[in-house]
């Protein structure tokens, strides 16, 4: 029993939906289908969900929204026409929108309901299409399916009590099509999930029905071992563990939003990333346990936009709680830190630069200076982090040696090395302008040389 | 103008004091002499200060202390006799001790006063000896010199207001001999410094008179670049910076007690470590600023007895303040941490094992588990830390590459790498039983190969 989730670009038009239908037909284990709202069909096109938001903005501003209303409903009419279905569902959608606008609902409630229409309408259409193809299929509204969520507008989370009812979905005959992105509170109010919402729904359904596999169809064939913007046509990863995936998601790997897979992970359900255009390609499998230890490094993640606050104070390491007080100043200012490497008398705190406004930066530096009486304080911006990821890597004696050699070959100075806790990753901080050449050098070392180390 | 301090083994007997007198005579810049109490003359001998403590313990316990009193005063009588001086000073010492015991002083006050007698008596004797040799010399009691200290028994610190008076010592004619280890409070009470007390006095005098050099005479010719217990006859360090010295003092380099040099450092006075037996050897010079950047690594420090507490929690890095709360649990339990390397979802805290009793370890692990709801928690003991030290090292692209290669060549797995903050050091955590072979491999790489990298 499989749960197959299709992202926005996989359901952007009728042509894509035909591909999706073929995928469903090709494997009778594909019993649960979760769909996003139609995404962009071409560069510069609108995502349907963005049109809904524009529509609401126009309505709220009291300007004429008829054109946008037509635009969004026509997106669906084009799909139904191309699939040789009636316009019943798009016409009904138009009525529902007008009706929603006539009700006295809070703005937040309006946003959540309107945002859900893309997924919901598409699920209805696709279920009808499958039926037309002679496949027994049922549209299931999330309320009926049992997706009971917390009462947070735009940021709902699944409640544990939902799972009992979700398990009953297994008994439903034929294919079940469920719209992604939203659920209902215990009192029956609609709430959307945060970003990556359809991935979340898919993951919840997979956990709920205890699926054998959660297939996540998108427009890439698999997860690359390195950011393809930095390395030309890099190798693909065939197998990852949850932990590796999570470390990779740190940066440069945005296949999933981190939290999306939590429900599936908790039930140890394998996840596969597949390409709707090439459904027979194996894709990238993500499992709970490592199976193949032959490659110490499975991927290289990287990200820019870090700053390092450096403090030095003579005899710092004699002061119990010094590090604590330093970090507390940051937390007080609502700045989360990524790393805090410390020497004997010095300590750096690595933070994401976007958290530091000019004003906040000055305040934090001033507070550290005045409250901790440090001898030296400085801040360095424009840092990039590179993370080598591979479970069990820390047991491979020469990974660090190979990595540092590759970085030196790129004539890059290491500002920071962090390998300490994780058995899954080793991190290097460098200056941003050296990022590409350094990642390329690491790629050559770990992915183009001998297959193992 | 130089301040020359002589440690306990350098003033253990008359023969040594003759060497010291020669050293003073050899350079007329050596105007200020700070002496310790006589140390051990041979393996198994008593340090004079230990005899004073034994004496006090006997007095306090109400047992007969006459034998010990004779033993300690005879140590000085032997010195005065061998130097052809009268017994006046040792006889006076004996009277002072008996008198002290007759006064109703607190135990703490008694300890501090008695402990100071070793240095004080030796300074008086040595000044007389210099005078006998025809060198103009004055004994200066710390009160008279102006060493005004805080009111902490056995743990005094110099007060800033002392320096004005100390500067006047420059005007004293001839050689000035000052006993190390103690000072006087503003109300005139004697207080001793903590461990390394004579080094502290020398450092204070050097700062006070704004000396050109603080010479620290001991029984080693210089500071080795690596612990000679781990590497046979290692190279000596000719030049260090304060920062390098401080990082090296982390472990395996116990030439100074860390705090001792602070007064001299604050005034940027160069310090040289010299051997009383070989005063013409250049020794190891310690300066404020790095002058020679040709060698990226000046020394390899290492130490054992570390433990690593490892925690893993999914989505840890989304929790603002997680690291803070973890460290706070340790601080609550009075455990200071050395390093806290963190990954995306995991964090390790490296602590010195001696801080963890079985009970404390269990309590800390339990608190972390229960208060932070971590997914995984474990603790690893028997870790050793190796620290490569060299100011400006972080600017040398291939130091990390060479170091990790050398560690891999020792077939040692790196449990932790910490290079983040310090521009002065790079630290590697390994299993203790690999320490010697790893340090040897690093020594070969950085000290036996090409002179530079």
TrEMBL record, chains A, B:
Catalytically driven reaction(s): L-aspartate + ATP = 4-phospho-L-aspartate + ADP
Alphabetical keyword list: Amino-acid biosynthesis, ATP-binding, Diaminopimelate biosynthesis, Kinase, Lysine biosynthesis, Nucleotide-binding, Transferase
Highest taxon of the lineage: Bacteria
Keyword Iron: no
Keyword DNA damage among record annotations: no
UniProt pathway annotation: Amino-acid biosynthesis; L-lysine biosynthesis via DAP pathway; (S)-tetrahydrodipicolinate from L-aspartate: step 1/4; Amino-acid biosynthesis; L-methionine biosynthesis via de novo pathway; L-homoserine from L-aspartate: step 1/3; Amino-acid biosynthesis; L-threonine biosynthesis; L-threonine from L-aspartate: step 1/5
Molecular function terms, GO-annotated: aspartate kinase activity
UniProt domain ACT: residue ranges: 388-453
Entry EC no(s): 2.7.2.4
NCBIfam families (alphabetical): asp_kinases, PRK09034.1
Function: Catalyzes the phosphorylation of the beta-carboxyl group of aspartic acid with ATP to yield 4-phospho-L-aspartate, which is involved in the branched biosynthetic pathway leading to the biosynthesis of amino acids threonine, isoleucine and methionine.
Record's protein name: Aspartokinase
